[in-house]
Amino acid sequence: MADSPRSVVTTTITAKKMGYIPTMINERNRAPNEYTSQQPQDKHFALGAHMSSNFSFELGGAPYTIPSPTEKPIAYVAAVVLFVSLAYALGDHGAKLPEINPLKPFELSNTRRILEFYQTSKELMLKGRAKFGDNPWRLMTEWGNCLVLPPDFIHELRSNPNLAFVEPAKDDSHGYIPGFEAFDGDEALPTVVTKYLTKALTKLTKPLSEESTLVLRHVLTDSTGISHLRDTEWHKMSPQQDIMRIVSRLSSRVFAGEELCRDEEWVRVSSEYTAAAFGVGYEVGQWPRWARPIVHWFLPSCWRVRALLNECRKTLQPHMERRAQRKREAVAAGKTGAVFDDAVEWFEKESSRKPDPATQQISLSLVAIHTTTDLLTQTMIDLAEHPELFQPLRDELVRVLSKEGLKKTALYNLKLMDSVIKESQRMKPVLLSTWRRLVMKDVTLSNGFVLRKGQKIIATNTHMWDANYYENPATYDGYRFLNMRGTDEEKNAHLVSTSAKHPGFGHGQHACPGRFFAANEVKIALAHLLLKYDWKFPDGFKPQMVPHGMVLLPDPSATLLIRRRKEELDLDSLEC
């Protein structure tokens, strides 16, 4: 889970995987061509004395009439669009700072620049850092025109009250558009995560481990017997698709209970909605911000998003009715304890408005499932590329878990695993920027630079590949953060710790609140995978991360060869 609750980052993986490539809308400047005239005889004109609903005047002795808006509405709308687009393109939107992908002469649209960013985002950010160093600069992105700050300012601004966190995320995710309510950020979501989810980590270890056993058996096969020879032979798996199914089951077990997490129809329709919404979000994002609340009504892709959200609600409705019935039965039986202890119940307790369980469950999946899938997928890919880490990780699991059981405290003591996951996040964060804010009031930085009200500011994650911050930054070192423990940098060595140096989960007041749950979930799933399976790449395959706008995708072409192995430790028998 990244700093933003729109894991945008993170869900974008599904959109790319399922083929929802951004549709770049051609912005046409439709200059009115509704009327003709004679060539003027001179350069002087005089307003006609007679005025009606139309605007009449004489130019060089020749009469001219401009139709009223009621007679030619399309021409007037086109003229307004042209004027506003021109004013926006040429207007001053903040300090005069260098820009890495500026408008070209006479260019009135940002379409080219946004498309260029989608295609070359990583290169543009690296180029900007190399060119401007520790000075602010500007960049046109799918999030709009952003002021890029040097990473050292992340810590200085970590708790600044004049920088908004939710507003830019909601705006960029189009949560104000009907059908995109799941991206609007339920006001109760932060409370649900911090007050309930994080505090419940101790009792969530057992259900997460139980569900891991079941879902791995279902998705990857789980038999070592002679009657299941294919299970113990190498066979293919698709990391992104299969890990998405695994993480969805684990997260949904906690968020909505056993029944819903195993409802294949809910898994299907909610996944389709998320993928479609991300894909359409890119399409809507190509329009100027002021036009989006209107344009979406005329886009068939937005109609489909709204239809899918309604389908999600219909699929969830029988589950909600059964829950309500069980609550009534409990009350009638005189039971006073909570019947359910999951996110559906937590939202009901904390929401100030009528809860919408479908959008709330999808909102949770956006900030949990997709980003967690990204992290676990990348870790599996990195381990396949560095097989020398398999045995040390398995040795650690057997040593720690056989002594402590599968408990929250034991997960904390899986220090090599913690380091490996954090290194995977350093090498490929879910987003090129996990720190984004909107300036609500002018802010003066320690170097005297002033952030102006209305500016959208970001800090890139490219410094995590910089030798000024990490030794041998291009080398994957699974022991990197383990070796930091016991040094002055120990406070930044843990997977869940955040810093300006490693903002994989964001940093500051609005760092990802669900990172503690995500870390435990990834460790439990990885423990089952490591002890129960071997995996490797097909011969000759070399994975490459794929930048797509702000998102950094695990190699979508990656295929793993996997086989069942006999585990050294029976995880299902451990005390939780």
Topology:
Blueprint: H1 8-17, E1 45-47, E2 55-59, E3 62-66, H2 73-90, H3 111-132, E4 137-141, E5 144-148, H4 152-156, E6 163-164, H5 166-172, H6 189-197, H7 201-219, H8 229-232, E7 235-237, H9 239-261, H10 264-285, H11 292-295, H12 300-332, H13 343-350, H14 357-367, H15 369-385, H16 390-404, H17 408-412, H18 415-427, E8 435-439, E9 443-444, E10 450-451, E11 456-459, H19 480-484, H20 515-532, E12 533-536, E13 546-548, E14 551-553, E15 560-564
Parallel strand pairs: 5-11
Antiparallel strand pairs: 1-2, 2-3, 4-5, 6-8, 7-15, 8-11, 9-10, 12-15, 13-14
Helix pairs in contact: 1-10, 1-15, 6-13, 7-9, 7-20, 9-15, 10-12, 14-15, 15-18, 15-20
Pfam family, one: p450
Protein name: Cytochrome P450
Organism: Colletotrichum melonis
Low-confidence stretches: 4-53, 81-95
Q: Got a strand count? A: 15
Beta-strand percentage range: 5-15%
What is the CA-CA span between the terminal residues?
25 Å
List the strand order in the largest sheet: 4-5-11-8-6
Number of helices: 20
Q: Structural class of the secondary structure composition?
A: alpha+beta
- Mean residue pLDDT: 83
CATH topology of the domain at 8-25 and 161-428 and 477-573: Cytochrome p450
Categorize the overall geometry: globular
Q: What is the CATH class designation of the domain at 8-25 and 161-428 and 477-573?
A: Mainly Alpha
CATH architecture of the domain at 8-25 and 161-428 and 477-573: Orthogonal Bundle
What does the largest sheet look like? 5 strands, mixed
